[in-house]
Here is the input.
Amino acid sequence: MSAERLEVGLIQQMPKVLLHDHLDGGLRPRTIIDLAAEQGYRKLPSTDPDALGEWFQRGADQGSLELYLETFEHTVGVMQTRDALIRVAAECAEDLAADGVVYAESRYAPELSTAGGLTLDEVVEAILEGFRIGSARVQNRPIVLRFLATAMRQADRAGEIADLALRHRDAGVVGFDIAGPEAGYPPGRFGVVFGRLVHANFHLTLHAGEGYGLPSIREALDLGAERLGHGVRIVDDIALDATGTATLGRLAAYVRDRRIPLELCPTSNVHSGAAASIERHPFDLLRRLRFRVTVNTDNRLMSDVSLSSEFAALDAAFGLGLDEIEWLTLNAMKSAFLPFDERLAMITDTIKPGFAVLRSDP
Ligand SMILES: [Zn+2]
Here is the structure.
């Protein structure tokens, strides 16, 4: 443990990178209320922003899957028009920039926003437009935002979403993801779709190894996933002896040797029951073993977190300090689905100088 904990205010000044953040999990409560009024959506549990925010966080923290899923019903419920999507995406850019995030990949399943008549292409175009508008509003805190197109495991539209992602790949869609319940919906049934994306030299990250264990991780890698959404259950393939010495199984060794990025989301894991507490989260073991660990928010509204608060919680539990947060940030930037030269420029022009300034500041 470090003697001094880092203040959230200091962490907010660090140039950070976020790879796993759901657009429909990060709305401002005030915005949900406004959009519900505009669209005649009457199912919100409260129209008071504070009470609504607390309701969302209770849903995430009660270990009730039904209540948790209900929270997304409301955010998705108000994301059904072009204007609503633009506003949500623009505010996402503003909120992340205000938190000191300099590069983010935001993800969402476009198929969830077609109930009001939008086409899949219109959904993606509105989100990218929102990112442009939001980024332009925060020129004092520049942020680069890219989009990951998610397909839902329990639905049957992965092929369409893959084509959609490829159509918009030069406009800001940099990757493809599968989300939704792991148990009962193995990614193998999307093998043909993934094969097509790999053949098109597109990027893939898959939600795997969150609630469900090693078979899910193995299958995601077999199918061409470059990163693991969560991937935290890789610890099931690591044995610790009485002295704390770790022995890696073949899969864990492969993940570490190949530098496969783990998109860890500690608070979200605590809320979903995948980890008992931040203090007992496998983040610490995986980071000490030098896996390619990255720190992420998952759902900022439901988990009541920001990337800075997440780092602050990890620093309080494990004494990360500035150097380790920089290492985690470089891990994330190296793992981004941005072209190599742009990644390198972010590292040399933004991230390293940003940390150096904070380090030299007494
Ligand atoms: Zn997620």
The domain at 8-27+79-352 is CATH 3.20.20.140 (TIM Barrel). The pocket of zinc ion is lined by residues 20, 22, 179, 207, 229, 298 (CB under 6 Å). The chain has 16 helices and ten strands.
